[in-house]
Amino acid sequence: MSPKAVRRAVVVVFVVGVAGMVGLSIADEPNGALAFGLLTAAAAVVLIAVTAVTGPRQAADPEALAERLEGRVQTLVAAGADEADVRRLVREAVALGRTRRED
Q1: Contact at 8 Å (CB) between 4 and 101?
Q2: Which end of the chain, N or C, is surrounded by fewer C-beta atoms within 10 Å?
Q3: Other C-beta atoms within 10 Å of 102: how many?
Q4: What's the CA gap between 92 and 14, in Å, rounded?
Q5: Which residues contact 10 (CB under 8 A, 6 or more apart)?
Q6: Which DSSP symbol is given to 80?
Q7: How far apart are CA 101 and CA 103, in angstroms?
């Protein structure tokens, strides 16, 4: 299950939990309201855990990445690939990476 799907499920649990707490409190059922409160609290813990595990990763050093990429380009060119084609491919891959960033 993707992190986005887990977050959506947690939001559903939040909405149901709050509605359950309010409804059962009005109905004078404190045990039921407490159960929905605990369910909502557990969902909050899940949301915190998912965010901590899938939070933004630190990017590698851009200079080191650039050096490594340039080395790979030179290796491909030395093996007979057309340098202009390889550099065009790198530009397109960078453009694709910029459009596919996750939420």
Answers
A1: no
A2: C
A3: 8
A4: 41
A5: 43, 44, 46, 47, 50
A6: T
A7: 7
For residue 78, pLDDT over 70 is answered with yes
Chain segment 39-75, per-residue pLDDT in tens: 999 999 999 998 888 866 666 788 888 899 999 999 9
Q: How far apart are alpha carbons 90 and 73 in whole angstroms? A: 9
Handedness of CA 49, 55, 61, 67 (dihedral sign): positive
Span 10-34, average pLDDT:
94
Alpha helices in the chain, H assignment, sequence order: 3-26, 30-54, 62-78, 83-99
Query: Which residues are CB-neighbours of 17 under 8 A, at least 6 positions away?
Result: 36, 37, 39, 40, 43
CA nearest to 29, candidates 42, 41, 20: 20
Q: pTM to 2 decimals? A: 0.52
